[in-house]
Amino acid sequence: MTTQSLRGDAVGIEQVTKIYGEGANAVAALKGVSLTIGDNEFFTLLGPSGCGKTTLLRILAGFEQVSAGKVFLFGEEIEQLPPNRRPINTVFQHYALFPHMTVEENIAFGLKRLGREPAEIRARVGEVMEIVRLGGFAHRRPGQLSGGQQQRVALARALAPQPKILLLDEPLSALDLKLRQQMRVELKQIQENTGITFIFVTHDQEEALAMSDRIAVMSQGEVQQLGTAQEIYERPNNRFVADFIGDANILAVTVLGDDDGSGYRRCRTAQGMEILCAGSGAPGSTPHVSIRPERIAIGAVGSMADGIACDVERVVYLGTNRQFLVCLADGLKLTVLVPNALRAGSELQPGDKAVIHVPPGTAQLLKD
Amino acid sequence: MAVPLPAGSQQETAAGLSGRDRLLLLAPALLMITVFLILPLGFILVYSFLTKGTYGGVIWEFSTAAYEQFLFERDLFTDELVFHASYLQIYGRSIVQALVATTASLIIGFPTAYYIATRPPSQRNMWVFLITVPYWVNLLIRTVSMLFIVRDEGPLNTALMATGLIDQPIRIAYTDFAIGLGLVYSYLPFMVLPIYAAIERFDFRLLEAGHDLYADRWTILRQIVIPLTRPGIVAGCLLVFIPSLGSFIAPDLLGGGKNLMIGNTIALQFQSSRNWPFGSAAAIILLTLVLIVLVIFARRAQQAAVASGR
Amino acid sequence: MARARIDLKRYPAFGTLTWACIVLLYAPMLVIMIYSFNELRSITNWGGFSLAWYWKAITNPQLHAATFNSIVVALSAATLGTVLALCAALAMSRGRRLRYQDTGFAIINLPLMVPEIVTAIGSLVFFLAVGIQLGLLTIIIAHTVFCIPFAYLPIAARLQGIEGYYEEAARDLYASRWETFRFVTLPLMLPGVIAGYMLAFIVSLDDFIITNMVAGPGATTLPMAIYGMVRTGFTPEINAISTMMLLVSALFVSASYLIGRAGDRKYNAQ
């Protein structure tokens, strides 16, 4: 990627490295991360704790300095700007609402620091309070609000100065499940209505998949894969992504041949089963493949023409779905997920014989 | 990795203060204490090795006379140094007096701290407050009020005589006992508070475990509670012992100025006796004693912390 | 039954000793308060209620001067000490550990470690040696030194309880470093600052040993005046002055305690 293309986007991150500590104690939190984020994009940094996603966010906000690399905002380098000179606002993980100020004062804080006129401030505060549906709470203090309300105040406070970029640091992690699901929809709507670029940090893959235009999956200070939710889920790049996003059966295989025109490669598992895999891999190489459990079909013996025989070892009822652990004749164990609505395999019990089918291209070759 | 490491000053605090800003903020307080406390301590160290001036002050001539004076007396006639123990006795008495005060404070303070820590949480703050208030009341006034009570004709003796328990006032004021009483009274809150803090953190489920394993109350106190709250007990003892050792007001008022302790001996050299080098030497010895005690306990606390894997 | 359960935590006699402790701490002060209202000059017998000794104390011109000096000293030393402690606490309680953090902390707490009598003669010798005229100025300087740790401890404790993200949020919302301090850090740490200031004020008002050494002729403070009076003979006037000073101290400490608690409640209410 060239510097030129970075400059056209809302955010350009070029070879950013962050090292904490010195000498022998030095730990690299980011190892040469490069990516671009477009204007009006809902962009998510997804990864387990310690993967560097929060560090990257803090670098964008200006709370941390890069050890090396460049950060561009609409083509301008901003590494040297202090946080108060960046048109970027943050929704903090713990909200960080000023406890000694009312809701109104919290929301007006940024506008006052920008030196806006009192009338304009009043109008804008009212406006964003409408956006986050907080009417009537103007004179409460943060301590008197519920977690969900505090979250809305934090969002309103960050939206009020109309930043170019809004950073959200796991803003939903402190809410309970129902509220979290509701806020996902609202956040996405607010992002679409305001047209502000959202950069969202989370370790919750479901959250990331539900809201994002694009997702950067991070691990150990590096971007593992960058793409839309569907790309990341269905075409994981490597073992980490396949494992981290959703459930996956990960198998070691040997690539037997080149693409035979069907778009798939013939591979053999260690136990000897042959499958047609998507993705690339040189013949003779021994990569891993990922097979999503819900892409495998299962049924009673005789229900499928080209089924592979297996033993049902365990059946777990999960509400929407039913999960099977099956063992193939060659000893390979696979997890299979079937929606209960399909009724497929609903009669199967542990100890029964069954057949499974792995459609061509279901298995995705990984880069390790 | 060939990445330039950030300089320390680049690391900022949340409020955006760089290392240099923080040094600038810290400097005035450190400077104030360095110039007006550490430097003066250096001065008395130097003065303790000088020759005493006739009307106070010093003559700039190196001498160890001030330190010799602790152990020896110059015989007026033969000009020989003769061993004499009166200053050693003052130090000895001060140490004993401070130890007694510390022990007495511990005997009252530990049960008090324990009792407070086992009150319902809502009451604890009130109790702690009750223990704290006397500390903030002027030490001089508290000592004066103690003197007022224990005087021969004071309320204590009057009350005792009125009840017919005694027909002569008991002599308490101007005795070592009065000094000890004054010291306990002065520094008791220092004993209670750290022990309270330690017991409050104590996991009382261990008591149930102890009882479950057939220990009785007193065994549990000796073998579980006291060992686990030892850091608080040690801190309390230090906080009583150290100020007691260098105390001035209690021996001065309650001892009537005749039962001297280290503090009075030092003050005297800068008031009527006018022997600055000797006073400085006495102060340096006191300071050394205090530092030795502090270092010993700091080291032991560190070892204990390492041993318990913290 | 719940009632019949033995309370494993209880030790017999501990409650009694606690009350003994409270009595020991408060009885002398209560007695002196009661006797301050004694009509008789005799400090032994009770001759009826009277405010005569208070009147005598209040109208004593020597005490006026001493009180004035004490207040001037306490206001100056507490203010200066609190400002220095506030700056030091900001430097020490925020961000990564400084390389000189432990040394800094040791120096700030040094005035609490050195026996007061040693500090007293050290200051005396120092002021005379460098030629600073003994008087109110030297008292203020000496008091400022020990006011620093007393103000520092509550301020630093408060500051450590304030998460760094409030300041980050302020910076994020376009506040300069000064505005961040002015509108966020200072209001949040204010209860600690007030508590620290009050403690420093009381400690300065109470000090006798150091003051007595560095005062020089002429600059008499209230504790020095009381000491002088006790030395020349015990009169009920001393009881009256003591009672008044006692109440002032108790008032200050209670206020600082309540302000600290109110601060906690205000910001942590959920």
How would you describe what is shown here?
Chain A contains 9 helices and 20 strands. With 368 residues, chain A is of the alpha+beta class. The longest helix of chain A has 18 residues, at 177-194. The radius of gyration of chain A is 25 Å and the shape is elongated. Chain B has 13 helices and 4 strands. Chain B has a two-stranded antiparallel sheet. In chain B, helix 3 (86-117) packs parallel to helix 7. Chain C is an all-alpha fold. Chain C has a single domain (52-269), classed as MetI-like (MetI-like fold), CATH 1.10.3720.10. Helix content of chain C is 75%, strand content 0%. Chain C is globular and about 70 Å long. Chain C starts with 13 loop residues before the first helix and ends with a helix. The chains are: A alpha+beta (368), B mainly alpha (310), C mainly alpha (270). Chain A binds chain B through residues 17, 19, 22-23, 26, 28, 31, 63, 65, 67-68, 82-83, and chain B through 1, 3-6, 8, 10-12, 14, 16.
Reading off the top of the CATH hierarchy, the class of the largest domain in chain A is best stated as Alpha Beta
Please, what is the oligomeric state?
A: heterotrimer
CATH superfamily of the domain at 92-258 in chain B: MetI-like
| Rg of chain B, Å, rounded | 25 Å
| Strands side by side in the biggest sheet of chain B | 1-2
Question: Unreliable stretches of chain B, pLDDT < 50, 5 or more residues?
Answer: 1-9
Question: SSE string of chain A, helix = H, strand = E?
Answer: HEEEHEEEHHHEHEHEEHHEEEEEEEEEE
How many domains is the backbone of chain A divided into?
2
The percent range for helix content of chain B is 55-70%
Element layout with pairings:
The complex is a heterotrimer of chains A (368), B (310) and C (270).
Chain A: H1 3-7, E1 11-20, E2 27-37, E3 42-46, H2 53-61, E4 68-73, E5 76-77, E6 88-91, H3 103-113, H4 118-131, H5 147-159, E7 165-169, H6 177-194, E8 197-202, H7 205-211, E9 214-219, E10 222-227, H8 229-234, H9 239-244, E11 249-255, E12 265-269, E13 274-278, E14 288-291, E15 297-300, E16 308-317, E17 321-328, E18 333-339, E19 353-357, E20 363-365
Parallel strand pairs in A: 3-8, 3-9, 6-7, 7-8, 13-20
Antiparallel strand pairs in A: 1-2, 1-4, 4-5, 9-10, 11-12, 11-14, 12-13, 14-20, 15-19, 16-17, 16-19, 17-18
Helix pairs in contact in A: 3-4, 3-5, 4-5
Chain B: H1 19-47, E1 51-52, E2 58-59, H2 65-71, E3 72-74, E4 81-83, H3 86-117, H4 121-136, H5 139-150, H6 155-162, H7 176-201, H8 205-212, H9 217-228, H10 230-245, H11 249-254, H12 262-270, H13 276-307
Antiparallel strand pairs in B: 1-2, 3-4
Chain C: H1 14-35, H2 52-58, H3 61-92, H4 101-113, H5 116-130, H6 136-161, H7 165-172, H8 177-206, H9 209-214, H10 222-232, H11 236-268
Helix pairs in contact in C: 1-11, 2-11, 3-6, 3-8, 3-10, 4-6, 6-8, 7-8, 8-11
